[in-house]
Amino acid sequence: MATAFRDIQPGEFEPTEAHPQHGVIIGGPAARAKRIEYGILLSSMVIGSLGALYWTLTHATGWVEWSAFLFGYILINMGVGIGYHRFYTHRAFEAGPKMRLAIGIMAQMACQASVLKWAADHRRHHAFSDRVGDLHSPYIDGHGKKMSKWKGLGIAHFGWLFDNTTSDMNVYGKGLIDDPQVLWCHRHRWSIAVFSSIIFPALWALAFGGPEHIIGTILIGGFFRNFFFLNFVMGVNSIGHVFGSQRFKTKDGSRNNWFMAWMTFGDGWHNNHHQHPRSAYAGLMWWEVDVNGYIISLWEKMGLVWNVQRAPKYVRDSDGNWVQKKKLNVQSPEAMSEDDGGLMFADGKKTAETKATADAG
Ligand SMILES: [Zn+2]
Ligand SMILES: [Zn+2]
Prior knowledge:
By secondary structure, the protein is mainly alpha-helical. The protein has helices at residues 28-58, 63-89, 97-108, 115-128, 149-157, 169-172, 180-187, 189-208, 214-237, 258-263, 270-275, 291-301, 331-334, 348-360, and strands at residues 24-26, 94-95, 165-167, 305-306, 314-316, 322-324. The protein is globular. Mean pLDDT is 88; it is low at 1-7 and 343-361. It is a multi-pass membrane protein.
């Protein structure tokens, strides 16, 4: 596809306005391409979900359609949590080329853009979390303006997909834009989306039901499955930065929210995650269910992945504060090099500058 690389070509990154933060583009072809791509993805999910509702009310649907939904939900939940998020964004472990490709395809089956785009956007979220430069904060919009609570929740959930700002891939895509598996996934993002939403559910219907189940399984087990799950992924950005508990006093609004964690296979332990972004485990206590973390452990035992990053263990001290069981240098497992988009872990000076800009705005 001729336009497949438009959003990673340096020439496309000409902004029409300056943004206070490095690596954030306002306007220009890259921001327009972002709105078009997210618009196609989201509107197909919404229209397909309305179709699923109509089909459920007017046709006999049953285990064929809903087993496709459940199987696909598990697959894309693993893909997003392990693939887009813990592996491609945060480098929580290492894997060989075949595994990296499989993880990338599994992630893109959720139809939330290419691993390159998702990871670059999410690195920017960590670089500026709830400050000027964050792309989906419930507190501040893409241009750095403060928002009221309800508007903020809406912008952090879906609104940010359609603003005229985007992430500079040259800054946040480091270590990804020259990775052959990442580029393969990026180039094939539309065919993977069509396979996941239409072809896979159709084959499922033929294998377990018959031709009369094809349309219902595509609508329920394809488009509605994507839309239903998307709300939980976006919910971590919106609800997960407003509602829930904070074990760690991070410089953002991130929260641990058990319901979001159950629905996202662990990523809803979002305050833990902001404290230890590189950890392959978002659940830090035994009761913090983290299905994707268990899967990574299983893959590690099977030898499929290695060098798995772990957060230090925490216990409560006599004052009720959470402290590291054995005092570790927590920075060391967190740091990513500049070449890996390491700007996400800005030093104290950068953070102070960002905060000053946020306060001024
Ligand atoms: Zn966050
Ligand atoms: Zn993250």
